[in-house]
Model the fold of this input.
Amino acid sequence: MAIPTTRQVVHVVRYPDGMPQEADFALDQRALRAPGAGEVLLRTQWLSMDPYLRPLLAGRYAVPRPELGAVVPGGALSQVVHSNSGCLAAGDWVVGDTGWCDYATLAAESLRKVNPVQAPLSTALGVLGIPGLTAWAGLKTIARPQAGETVLVSTAAGAVGSVAGQLARLSGCRTVGIAGLPEKCAIAREAFGFDECVSHQSPTFVEDLRAACPEGIDVYFDNVGGPVLEAALSMLRTRARVVLCGMSAQYNQAQRPAGPNLGPVIGARAILQGLVVFDHLARFAEFTADVAPLVRDGRMHYRESISEGLASAPSAFIAMMAGRNLGKALVRVAS
Amino acid sequence: MAIPTTRQVVHVVRYPDGMPQEADFALDQRALRAPGAGEVLLRTQWLSMDPYLRPLLAGRYAVPRPELGAVVPGGALSQVVHSNSGCLAAGDWVVGDTGWCDYATLAAESLRKVNPVQAPLSTALGVLGIPGLTAWAGLKTIARPQAGETVLVSTAAGAVGSVAGQLARLSGCRTVGIAGLPEKCAIAREAFGFDECVSHQSPTFVEDLRAACPEGIDVYFDNVGGPVLEAALSMLRTRARVVLCGMSAQYNQAQRPAGPNLGPVIGARAILQGLVVFDHLARFAEFTADVAPLVRDGRMHYRESISEGLASAPSAFIAMMAGRNLGKALVRVAS
Done:
């Protein structure tokens, strides 16, 4: 195929104020840089929609926020169209931070090669990608769930939570999920095997959660922070472990709100530990060896929420931030 | 000496509402039970004033709160007057939870025998007692400070904080204290060797703390919670460890207040862990072997704030809760 010289991108028009709006983003045609030495030209197949983009756009993330006018950052599964690297060949599939675009030029060494036969390609952005690694690393290095323990997971139907719950269940734990929409609670129970799942949107959320965990919790995998975290901390059993992985409840807020009182953490002799998935990238092969067989033989399930075309990326991101996606949020860019 | 048949006690008249008042307590004469099999009769020498009494009186502690009219709970250093136990003899010195009284009858097995020649007796309630063990266990099992790290300690001039700071300094750390009164900050620096000490009563507390820890903190030993904990969490370095040991900032509050936002804990990949000293009683001999030589040879300092007579216990406790004591708060009961 001929190498294109222009590309479509979605760029940052303005930084979101509260919940992101479509007008915060715009589609644009730009010149496509030809790959230099060690670089490859990529065609985007799937864009990954991830909550961390929101704090990134607010300048509250581990990397600097993009300037106005820059391409919206984000991970994608792409195919190599042209390679100037000995490590990758045209036709290879890779995951990398291309941003929201249909074509990108990137250094080959910044990319992770994906085996296209181990599972459907899109899983490289979900259950076998960074979200799956996040869940796996949080359980492996912090939560260390033991058979018979009760493991509570927020965003239970989401890309991270669904993997955390399933891995804990496969370890012999009782799993209790928390999600927003009632449909998500049903998915958590029926697709991901949670023993129970309660909605944080219920007016009786705290009571529901206590009823679902009558003996308290040994592990809490937290992706949301806020009142859900506070409720979970009030139910810690002795020597409970809490994975602090995300704070999506506050991502749209201009100021960091107050947090939970930590008195119960003392009484429970509990451990709360922050998790940043990038610390665990070196364990990707180990993670894949653990989880890919589970996906292949049907013991690990996943769901996807797909929108069509690069232009739909802003609305897909907004829907995810509003909690309306019913699976790993993906944008199909090439068909 | 003849065995007395009555004793003086201080009892709980009413549960404190906010800051404790003298009228919450009253002195009383009561019958003294003769020791049965396995029991000893004790004469109180020193009463220990400890912050945990406040949440205990509010029913927010690990053990049930005392009924109205019951003797105020509390640890003391006492001498055995009469023994019906083969483990203890008249004249032995022991630490136990006698409550606020001049004589007590207790089971010998509930007592910890004190070596009266290793250090002054009163140290068995402070630097070589539960406060010292608390500091030692928090550093040993959670904080694990490494030479060159910055260790932040609240209640830096207090019974726990002063030991934590000195042990960290002896491990080669830079130590920064937090205290209330300016006199306490001076004591922390001059008596306990903190490199810096800032007052949380200063209107520029957060700025002062940042100036004292320009590169952030690797360890925070928290005895207070509240805004001081929040400030400390905003300064965590990567892989920092936080010992959650006490929440004295909220002990006088009827409702548990909101806590710190935990977003910075994620970014720092930090660990917060609750410490309850009772979990570590089995390591008392190891702790004593570590710390008693430091006290004897003058590398570990301590200060005491002594009030005279059992009747002064309520005012001594109130003064401590108000932060006015300039050392481990003790009441001398027998002279």
DSSP finds nine helices and 15 strands in chain A. The domain at 130-278 of chain A is CATH 3.40.50.720 (Rossmann fold). The radius of gyration of chain A is 20 Å. The first strand of chain A starts at residue 6 and ends at 12.
